[in-house]
Design goal:
Layout: E1 4-14, E2 19-24, H1 29-32, E3 38-42, E4 49-60, E5 63-68, H2 74-77, E6 84-88, H3 102-105, E7 109-112, E8 117-125, E9 132-136, E10 142-146, E11 152-156, E12 161-164
Parallel strand pairs: 7-12
Antiparallel strand pairs: 1-2, 1-6, 2-5, 3-4, 3-6, 4-5, 7-8, 8-9, 9-10, 11-12
Length: about 170
């Protein structure tokens, strides 16, 4: 079965015409939420998957407001609160060299330039100017690694290994 990838989470309804309020988790909003694009609504409790077609998209107060062609009133979409919105792996775009999807980075082993194993990337934060990788060390401690040229020196997605230069005060 083809893998599915998150593009957002439905947190509420918006208005009475069947719009849904999403927290987006994609860097490709224009592409993912373009009218006519197919998305999947996945209910984590029942594992039910429903394919839907984007009718409209807009941004309102840091949320993405999406309406699907299949629904036109609030009563039809109430049940989707808490569901995730996903795409098939085949819908992922080719990235430029030195660009990676989150799912490619999460799970990678982080090693210092000196060969010390620091831990496994478990999460990626996007607070502002650059991403921050949350590394869980073997001791259970979290290490925050900024995704910047001065720190991240080598990314080997195939072998799931990332080499970094440990700057003073990083760990």
């Amino acid at each position: 079965m083809e893998k599915l990838f998150n593009v957002g989470k439905i947190v509420n309804t918006q208005g009475i015409k069947g719009e849904l309020k999403l927290i987006s988790s994609t860097d490709f909003k224009e592409e993912r939420f373009q009218p006519g694009n197919k998305l999947l609504i996945v209910n984590g409790n029942t594992n039910e998957i429903l394919e839907v077609t984007v009718k409209s998209h807009r941004v309102h107060k840091n949320f993405d407001i999406v309406q699907f062609e299949e629904f036109n009133n609030i009563n039809q979409v109430e049940k989707f609160k808490g569901c995730t919105v996903k795409v098939h792996e085949s819908q992922l775009s080719e990235l430029d060299e030195d660009e990676y999807y989150f799912h490619e980075i999460i799970g990678c082993k982080v090693i210092s330039n000196q060969g010390e194993e620091l831990g496994i990337i478990k999460e990626i934060l996007t607070p502002g100017a650059n991403d921050v990788w949350v590394v869980k060390s073997s001791k259970g401690k979290e290490i925050l690694i900024p995704y910047i040229e001065d720190v991240v020196k080598e990314i080997d997605i195939k072998n799931k290994i990332i080499k970094i230069d440990v700057l003073e005060g990083l760990i």
